[in-house]
Amino acid sequence: MKSTAPHTILQLQQMKNDGKKIACVTAYDASFAAQAVAAGMDCLLVGDSLGMVVQGQDSTLAVTLDEMIYHCRAVRRGAPQSFIIADMPFMSYATAEQAMANASALMQTGIHMVKLEGGAAWVFDSVTQLTQRGIPVCGHLGLTPQFVHQLGGYRQQGKTEQAANQLYAQATELVQAGIRLLVLECVPETVGKYIAQHLSIPVIGIGAGYACDGQVLVSYDMLGLTPGKIPGFAKNFMLGQACISDAFKAYVQAVKAQDFPVKNG
Ligand code: KIV
């Protein structure tokens, strides 16, 4: 059957404009990518979370560009019609020159967009340079795992009014620099709602509340494969399902119906 999944950034933007929720999940290999797309996933993220869930590291920092390239190629082979976003690994975009060379290498695997973490001035510069040269960029604010040691752990961000205002200011500057998508991780529901409502581009939340334009989860968390505790904002969609494909479908349906994440306020 021919996939009807969106495969351009314009289609994801149209979903936001039409108020349709975007379902996204991480994928690291061809088989999981194919199952996710067959279940109706709108886009896939080759996340550097693979360092933790595939490699067993305690953070994402050890993931290399070559490893990302390997996984991007695999995901692309499994989901040739899908819109695929890939993380630029730790320190691979510390300067605009590095960002250009390393993002080019990722794009040449066949993915469609690169994701950079953070909202500091040096990130804006890289975003501008990349987008001016035709590389679509996704921002990532809130809990940014590559900054885990600076943040003092995997903790919720944007909890005070000042921190929430700073996140919004960074998001608007990233949009001005050229990002076309924003991942917002682990912030209060009110902050997710405000940022999603005030940005023109789609905001994909992970632990950022029901009001974001879409949701992303780490596939190993939502399939019950992650050893130990999963983040409080994640949910094991395998429970009550017979197979991985059904779990992916349950997640897609829950995101589209706005049953996940549950509204708190
Ligand atoms: O690496 C990753 O999987 C991510 C998600 C947590 C959004 O960046």
TrEMBL record:
<keyword id="KW-0479">Metal-binding</keyword>
<keyword id="KW-0963">Cytoplasm</keyword>
<keyword id="KW-0808">Transferase</keyword>
<dbReference type="GO" id="GO:0032259">
    <property type="term" value="P:methylation"/>
</dbReference>
<feature type="binding site">
    <location>
        <position position="115"/>
    </location>
    <ligand>
        <name>3-methyl-2-oxobutanoate</name>
    </ligand>
</feature>
<dbReference type="GO" id="GO:0008168">
    <property type="term" value="F:methyltransferase activity"/>
</dbReference>
<feature type="binding site">
    <location>
        <begin position="48"/>
        <end position="49"/>
    </location>
    <ligand>
        <name>3-methyl-2-oxobutanoate</name>
    </ligand>
</feature>
<feature type="binding site">
    <location>
        <position position="87"/>
    </location>
    <ligand>
        <name>3-methyl-2-oxobutanoate</name>
    </ligand>
</feature>
<keyword id="KW-0566">Pantothenate biosynthesis</keyword>
<comment type="function">
    <text>Catalyzes the reversible reaction in which hydroxymethyl group from 5,10-methylenetetrahydrofolate is transferred onto alpha-ketoisovalerate to form ketopantoate.</text>
</comment>
<dbReference type="GO" id="GO:0015940">
    <property type="term" value="P:pantothenate biosynthetic process"/>
</dbReference>
<feature type="active site" description="Proton acceptor">
    <location>
        <position position="185"/>
    </location>
</feature>
<protein>
    <recommendedName>
        <fullName>3-methyl-2-oxobutanoate hydroxymethyltransferase</fullName>
        <ecNumber>2.1.2.11</ecNumber>
    </recommendedName>
</protein>
<dbReference type="InterPro" id="IPR040442">
    <property type="entry name" value="Pyrv_kinase-like_dom_sf"/>
</dbReference>
<dbReference type="InterPro" id="IPR015813">
    <property type="entry name" value="Pyrv/PenolPyrv_kinase-like_dom"/>
</dbReference>
<dbReference type="GO" id="GO:0005737">
    <property type="term" value="C:cytoplasm"/>
</dbReference>
<dbReference type="GO" id="GO:0000287">
    <property type="term" value="F:magnesium ion binding"/>
</dbReference>
<feature type="binding site">
    <location>
        <position position="87"/>
    </location>
    <ligand>
        <name>Mg(2+)</name>
    </ligand>
</feature>
<dbReference type="InterPro" id="IPR003700">
    <property type="entry name" value="Pantoate_hydroxy_MeTrfase"/>
</dbReference>
<feature type="binding site">
    <location>
        <position position="117"/>
    </location>
    <ligand>
        <name>Mg(2+)</name>
    </ligand>
</feature>
<dbReference type="Pfam" id="PF02548">
    <property type="entry name" value="Pantoate_transf"/>
</dbReference>
<comment type="subunit">
    <text>Homodecamer; pentamer of dimers.</text>
</comment>
<keyword id="KW-0460">Magnesium</keyword>
<keyword id="KW-0489">Methyltransferase</keyword>
<feature type="binding site">
    <location>
        <position position="48"/>
    </location>
    <ligand>
        <name>Mg(2+)</name>
    </ligand>
</feature>
<comment type="pathway">
    <text>Cofactor biosynthesis; (R)-pantothenate biosynthesis; (R)-pantoate from 3-methyl-2-oxobutanoate: step 1/2.</text>
</comment>
<comment type="similarity">
    <text>Belongs to the PanB family.</text>
</comment>
<dbReference type="GO" id="GO:0003864">
    <property type="term" value="F:3-methyl-2-oxobutanoate hydroxymethyltransferase activity"/>
</dbReference>
